[in-house]
Amino acid sequence: MGDEWLKAASVVPSKRQLDWQKTEFYAFCHFGMNTFTDREWGDGTDSPELFNPTDFDASQWVQAVKNGGMKGLVLTCKHHDGFCLWQSEYTDYSVKNSPFKNGKGDIVKEVSDACKEAGLKFGIYVSPWDRHEKTYGTGAPYNTYFKNQLEELLTNYGELFCVWLDGACGEGENGKKQEYDWQGYYSLIRRLQPNAVISICGPDVRWCGNEAGICRKSEWSVVPSEFCSNLYTAEHSQKSDTVLPSGKEMVLDLGSRKAIKGKDDFIWYPAEVDVSIRPGWFYHESEDYKLKGLKKLEEIYLNSVGANANLILNIPPDKTGQINKIDSLELDSFRRRLEKLFYYCQSGNAHAFATSENDSSDAVKNIFDSADNYWQCDSDDEMPEIVIDLGEQKVFDKVVLAENIATGQQIEKFTLFFDKGGKWKRLFKGTVIGYKRICLFKAVKSSKIKIQINSFRGKATLSSVGVYMSKD
Ligand code: FUL
């Protein structure tokens, strides 16, 4: 005991987790029966006749999502009401009994095709909780039903980057109880879509713990394996954002040395922040003027993508079957706002010097190129430092740091300094870095920056460092 952190430092992501992490920011599209009934949770009794998007256009969705600067899209193929957006062979409760394209339409197909064409990754959301299906709550028969449906989704719609299994279940004490065959679901997904991460109720991507867009100050991707529990996710579902930001419901420290003391089994389980641009997950006309403002979206982005988590932002298409103009305009403005934040890259001609380099292939110059190489400190360097020379005096208000997570997550604390008249002045103090840490501060003018790594596990790495200034 006492060296848990060494064990934690050796945990690395799978290839699918690495690919997912690089997706950073992607869309959630909640669309289904609730869109037409103006509800958030349908009870599975609404007639398929109600599902009637009059102007459905998947390429319009994809365009809006791309314009928002997002790299993927996850579609609610089946929400809790059990209504399927594809022509499932196993139920009548689907688009095939709706007026949409005279019962011949397939929303999943059109959206997945449009994503492919536009170069967006495509993922599926499927709710295990099904309020329509009669076998729900009977054990094996429902598991067979669910796996049959999964198989349809996993085979007919091309490559998926994510399978999002929701933990929500509102049955309550006296409701139906379904024992889910999680392992059976997972092996099917692995066999048919080996590159897809299984999110939320699954082993690859961890729910950050609330739906308010808040992630931890120190979001570790390596956590004790007990946090990979679907029971834990289900118990916390629908509750936590009511008690946040006091933080009472959400465990705030999952991965520090203190938090992992006495634990001996660790997993790579990176966080995802899921949040809606509107108050609800589905489209409601009454919320047309209640979109989160650009400032709020920026804050969510910087505190998720910029704090070692991925961001899935929900944009719900409306009754016409398109993303509402209000949302698409907001997405466009948001992308432009992000571009402005990182408008001037001040480290284009920079040089770096490190107190140590593990060997010549781990040279510090690697932090400036886009290849998969990286800098790693030497094993006896107790407080590694990197000095960045920008070549001339430059104004900057952001430093973006990245660890080489392919070799794990090691940095626990760091400090940034800038050179002011020949003296180092402190600029920023941070904890974890992981895949990405965006450090924000009041703009300063200087030609040199120092990164000091104050505490780390094993051997610290950095794969990239960028110095930026916003455009007004
Ligand atoms: C929750 C669900 O109950 C909501 O309707 C929504 O789908 C959200 C993403 O997950 O658990």
Characterise this structure.
This protein is of the alpha/beta class. The chain folds into 2 domains: about 5-340, Glycosidases (TIM Barrel), CATH 3.20.20.80; about 345-470, Sandwich (Jelly Rolls), CATH 2.60.120.260. It is built from 12 helices and 19 strands. It has helices at about 5-10, 15-25, 35, 60-65, 105-120, 140-155, 180-190, 230-235, 240-245, 255-260, 295-300, 325-340; strands at about 25-30, 70-80, 120-125, 160-165, 195-200, 205, 220-225, 265-270, 270-275, 310-315, 345, 350-355, 375, 385-400, 410-420, 425-430, 435-455, 460, 465-470. The strands form 4 sheets. It has an 8-stranded parallel sheet with strand order 5-4-3-2-1-10-9-6, with helices on both faces. Strands 11, 12, 14, 15, 16, 17 and 19 form a 7-stranded antiparallel sheet that branches. Strand 9 (about 270-275), helix 11 and strand 10 (about 310-315) form a beta-alpha-beta unit. Helix 4 crosses helix 5 (about 105-120) and helix 6 runs parallel beside helix 7. The longest helix has 17 residues, at about 140-155. The radius of gyration is 23 Å and the shape is globular. The model is unreliable at about 240-250 (pLDDT under 50). The protein binds beta-L-fucopyranose. The site of beta-L-fucopyranose has 6 residues, from loops.
CATH-wise, what's the superfamily of the largest domain? Glycosidases
* Fraction of residues in helix: 10-25%
Strand content bin: 25-35%
**SS field, number of helical segments:** 12
Radius of gyration of CA atoms, rounded to a whole number: 23 Å
Q: On the 0-100 scale, what is the average pLDDT?
A: 94
Physical arrangement of strands within the biggest beta sheet: 5-4-3-2-1-10-9-6
Tell me the number of strands: 19
Return the domain count: 2
Main β-sheet: number of strands, strand sense, barrel status?
8 strands, parallel
| Gross geometry | globular
Enumerate the spans where pLDDT stays under 50 for 5 or more consecutive residues: 240-248
CATH architecture of the largest domain: Alpha-Beta Barrel
